[in-house]
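Newbie here. two chains, one complex. Structure please?
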Amino acid sequence: MAYDKFTTLTSTAVPLPIENVDTDQIIPARFLKATTREGFGDNLFRDWRYNGDNTPKKDFVLNNPIYKGKILVGGKNFGSGSSREHAAWAVYDYGFRCVVSSFFADIFKNNCLNIGVLPVQISPEFSNEIFEAIYADANTELEVNLEKQTITLLSSGTSESFDINGYKKGNMLNGFDDIDYLQSMKSEIETFTESRPF
Amino acid sequence: MSKTLFDKVWDSHVVRNIADGPDILYIDRHLIHEVTSPVAFVGLESRGLSVLYPERTFAVADHNTPTINQHLPVEDPLSANQLKTLEDNANKYGISHWGLGHANNGIVHVVGPENGITVPGATIVCGDSHTSTHGAFGAIAFGIGTSEVEMVLTTQCIMQPKPKKMRISVNGTLYKGVTPKDVGLYIISKLTTSGATGYFVEYAGDVFENMSMEGRMTVCNLSIEMGARGGMIAPDDKTFDYIKGRPKTPKGAGWDTAMEYWSTLKTDDDAVFDKEITFDANDIEPMITYGTNPGMGMGISNNIPTAESVEGGKATYDKSLAYMGYAENEQMIGKKIDYVFIGSCTNGRIEDFRAFASIVKGRKKADNVTAWLVPGSHIVEAKIKEEGLLDIFEEAGFVLREPGCSACLAMNDDKVPAGKYAVSTSNRNFEGRQGPGSRTLLASPLVAAAAAVTGVVTDPRELL
């Protein structure tokens, strides 16, 4: 489905400096039983966020009111494991519009791009600097500029550029999605189908 | 220009290339299940679109299905609703549907090959990361998100940049007691859970040439666990023998034409990979995982590594061991086990149950172990009965359940309780993967069988 345009985003950020955060942690399988895509934010990081009796785990970052914002900063290899797009939906539904990490798992990154959440890959050094800055001052803001492909830590002015292919960038800036594009080339696809041996 | 196997299959499916953007990749076969497809149908209906080629999509119920009393209505209303939604969508758009109780039902990645949906040189996708299984046949097969499921339904295409290419060769001969699962877990332990991210892997060398088709499926299945988009093996006579005559493979002249194409599907001698890695078969022993991602595996006779000796941060490593209730330098042999699960798209095929039977035959299930034996499909279940394996299992105190994904992801009632340890032949040992608070030790069917009869982590070579 088409989604919100993404141009620039200036926000405080939520730090989650754990490596190899898999999509089973982002949204556990038992919460995948819906047939619509709304409401997954309630169960984002469910088992890290809540005890078995549904009381909040006080030491988990999403339960700490000083950390908030539209940017989630994760550890290396964020989003590994299952292809469930529900993980990206949960991130979006909770209110994040951008996930920052020094390394992303492939499918999660792709799923984010397909629903309008911007994955921003940065160097490990910059990642460390961002974590330190947020822990020093939770009001630290990050500025993400998609047009310029830059992410800036406003407190220090440190900035890095990030990669995104031109096509996906255009989609995000304009709020288009792949189906809009694919629909426009249907006759080409039909011709291709005729050439398939099986 | 010289091409790899991957290049040959990928390039022949590119409908259009976008400069500074992805390829428009044509998809030959599309598998759907009840969990990741409903929202795709909602999406296409909200746009007023339909399914372009329903004959290229195959619906199978597996993730949510109970593994006992499948003839009765599904008790969980949410699961029942997802299963019904899959059936309704399939019926509405004329898509083949193998639901609960259908003779061909089972785990989507088991029934695809069994029924000849999977063929060499094809592009195969499914909203499930273990779609990489089908790469065993020389297909490009990988998991996609639900947005992409919608794309395939409406246009038979997805848009993805072409991944880089990696070749992993394992040469030599595997020792007795070392299975394809051990080969997969060994490779992941060496590459880490992100070591192949951005790549599509080709497996090559003696070990894969000599491996059965089912073994190749196990290895390709695990490709995603090192971050690879998928993994594939060049088709050979073993491949063609496996698929010939299956219900959905080409027949007659169609077979001959297909064979002409399939026989070209190998990497050219001078083709170049972005990365090449080689291992020696003699370095691999039965594997077991001790942590909370599939890269945290080791030879079963070793001790748990120290944080200093593994890649990654100490905080994450400590968190992982704390979750498992283990400590650095401990040995895994002798660790108490509560549950054993044999099944899943990784190890739910007949050869896996034969391996399990080879150890439990003439022995008894340990009293402290709850065991779930879950065939990958009804066809596997029937073979277990035909070959007399069921008698062996029952004599040893085991019960055979009905097919489905089951405790691999514990969406149904097959959940390992919090704090309990499970030796599992599945593919993921993430926190809570087999139920909230569950602790998973990934291993081969032989290691699972050894644990099931002894009640502790045991080297299966002592029981062979």
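Moderator note: The mean pLDDT of chain B is 97. Chain B touches chain A through 81 residues (CB under 8 Å). Thread marked as resolved.
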